[in-house]
Amino acid sequence: MKELIDETILKIGLENNKGENLSLKLNIDNPWKDADGKEYSNEFIKNEIIEYVELGGKIYVGTDSMLFPDKCNFAAVIAFHDRDLNIARYYYKKIKSKSLSYRELQTKILEEVSLAIKVAQFVLNVCPKADVELHIDIGTNKKINATAKFFKMIHGWVTGTGFDLKVKPNSWASSLADSHTKRK
Q: What is this structure's pTM?
């Protein structure tokens, strides 16, 4: 059962080996953007979520990140896609962090998952009856995916919060997020 998570739980984040909290904040003041870069307010996104859910659509949340020498870019996507309703659009937020701790793959991937859960929780806070599926940019084949070793942990975390999980090659919403991490 998907229960609304208390706001204080959403603020609990990862710590690096120095005890510094790494948890990214989903800044409500930052606008959401569409694929073309047009900005939208949180109120607009909330209305989009409510209208889409009332039509019976499932909401897809995807995240990804890109490490640069001096920072790490994260992107989170809320996607609306339904062939029967002829709907296909998404909105994203980009978050930049200067923490060098994200050079460690596990820390970076867990932050992506944490961000996806926060966005999914945002969706549920707006519309508790929403059907939300998380798309995480990890694989399951240990021979070709360095992130596959984290699959069981991430699967348990995401499904334990009540969300469905999709991973490579079925995590298309994380691919949408990927396209917004590349630019410095």
A: 0.87
Structural domain boundaries, residue 53: 28-178
Residue 6 lies in a domain: no
How open is the CA angle 94-98-99, to the nearest 5 degrees? Answer: 115
Q: DSSP E strands: which ranges in 26-82?
A: 32-34, 39-40, 58-68, 71-82
pLDDT at 24: 75
Which residue in 16, 41, 37, 13 sits closest to 27, CA to CA?
41
CA distances from 82 to 52, 53, 65, 87 (A): 10, 11, 26, 5
**What is the number of structural domains in the chain?**
1
**Residue 159 domain flag:** yes
Task: Compute the average pLDDT of residues 149-157.
Answer: 97
Strand partners, 79: 60, 90
70: exposed, middle or buried (Cβ count in 10 Å: 0-12, 13-18, 19+)? exposed
Residue 42 CB neighbours (<10 A) = 15
Domain CATH number, residue 97: 3.30.420
Please report whether residue 15 resides in a domain: no
